[in-house]
Amino acid sequence: MNDLLSRAMRLLSQRDHSEAELRRKLAAQPFMAKARFGGKTPNASTPVAEEPVDPAVIEQVIAYCYQHNWLDDPRFARSYIGSRSRKGYGAQRIRSELMQKGVDKERVQAALAECDIDWCEQAKQVAQRKFGDALPTDWKEKAKVQRYLLYRGFFQEEIQSIYRDFAQ
């Protein structure tokens, strides 16, 4: 358990992880061959046999991390939302990424609801950063802006509000 706990501590000291993400990383083979052999790949005569990690031990490590407040899915979701929104991503994409990382839908919804981000303003800033202050008015260029913002994870209503506010 000590080996697994030290791996968990190392992973969580680098950044927050969701429970599912940490569980997956702990269940993976402990170290890659290059990491074990000082950056050098072992030759074919070096046997590298790995035992699978016992799920009961992983459960103990996860419980220990929760007890010491090292692992917290709501905190992870809040920090992830803040980080990704600062990089110009919308709520839809962030929601999808969090669910891929194993955070359940209710926690994602709760974290998005409690964050105080104006997604319409965020979409406007992202569009202006990419396309300049004067947003395009012709149909082809508008479609380009819309596609870009949809790709970044903004909802159609937020994108349309940019042009409504811009026209006024």
TrEMBL record:
Stretches of the chain forming a coiled coil according to its record: none
Domain RecX third three-helical: 118-161
Pfam family, one: RecX_HTH3
RecX second three-helical domain location: 72-112
Ranges that cross the membrane: none
Keywords: Cytoplasm
Gene Ontology cellular component terms for the protein in this record: cytoplasm
Residues covered by the RecX first three-helical domain: 6-28
BP GO terms, sorted: regulation of DNA repair
Family designation: Belongs to the RecX family.
Role description: Modulates RecA activity.
Protein name in the entry: Regulatory protein RecX
GN (gene name): recX
